[in-house]
Amino acid sequence: MAGNGRSPGASVASRVLALLGAFDGEHRSMTLTVLAKRADLPLATAFRLVNELVEWGALTRRTTGEYVVGRRLWDLGLLSPVQSGLRQVASPFLHDLYGATLATVHLAVRDGTSALYVDRLAGHVSVPVVSDVGSRLPLYATGVGKVLLAHAPDDVRAWVFTNLNRITPYTITQPGRLRAELRRVLRDGFAQTSEEMSLGACSVAVPIRVAGGPVVAALGMVVPSLGRSRPRLVAALQVAAQGIGRSLPLGESD
């Protein structure tokens, strides 16, 4: 059924999805006016649909008048194979890594041209970490992202190579340098970053495969510096990644 928004042919479902899609890592809380603008909907249409989403539990209205994602969407998200399968299987391995290193540990999958963080354990050492569960970060500036990018289809890599934005002074923005780095990832079996996403934070990551098949996820750590500890961290990550891969059922990457 079509509504009466700016796009005459847009269905009610597409408008609801536009409202939900307006939320991202930088827009976790929005007024109705901002939400309508980001969803490209008339204010009256957004008001009506947002009220229905609040009633259903997909959105929550704060006392300040801003809207945030509601608990019911979170509950639905937990039913996703990424959450219920990969995250559940990987959880004990992440806790083992955290216990052995006290470092921040990440589990991520590729979502289009971004790294989607599906689990995270915060380390004891104070390190600037911008990721959180559910956040999406650039593939080219994170350890887990470089692993996923190295194993991504050609069209994904081509898009990334033409959209390299500087995040810190150390972010790799030259396509040639990034291509060389990805070749090293494939050759050595791990990726690393040095203050490329956050100043004062370095990372190292390895791929997770199911039964020797394609890469389905990446496992990484964030530490203040790598130095001589890199071989030890890589070895610990690889053991955990192999354990996760062996524990995942075939088809879990679907």
TrEMBL record:
Gene3D superfamilies associated with the record: 3.30.450.40, Winged helix-like DNA-binding domain superfamily/Winged helix DNA-binding domain
Keyword Transcription on entry: yes
Alphabetical GO biological process terms: negative regulation of DNA-templated transcription
Taxonomic superkingdom: Bacteria
GO MF terms, alphabetically ordered: DNA binding; DNA-binding transcription factor activity
Record-annotated IclR-ED domain positions: 72-250
Domain HTH iclR-type: 10-71
SUPFAM superfamilies per the UniProt record, alphabetical: GAF domain-like (SSF55781), Winged helix' DNA-binding domain (SSF46785)
Pfam family, one: HTH_IclR
UniProt xrefs under InterPro entries: GAF-like_dom_sf (IPR029016), HTH_MetabolicPath_Reg (IPR050707), Tscrpt_reg_IclR_C (IPR014757), Tscrpt_reg_IclR_N (IPR005471), WH-like_DNA-bd_sf (IPR036388), WH_DNA-bd_sf (IPR036390)
Keyword annotations: DNA-binding, Transcription, Transcription regulation
Protein name as it appears in the record: IclR family transcriptional regulator
Organism taxonomic ancestry: Bacteria, Bacillati, Actinomycetota, Actinomycetes, Pseudonocardiales
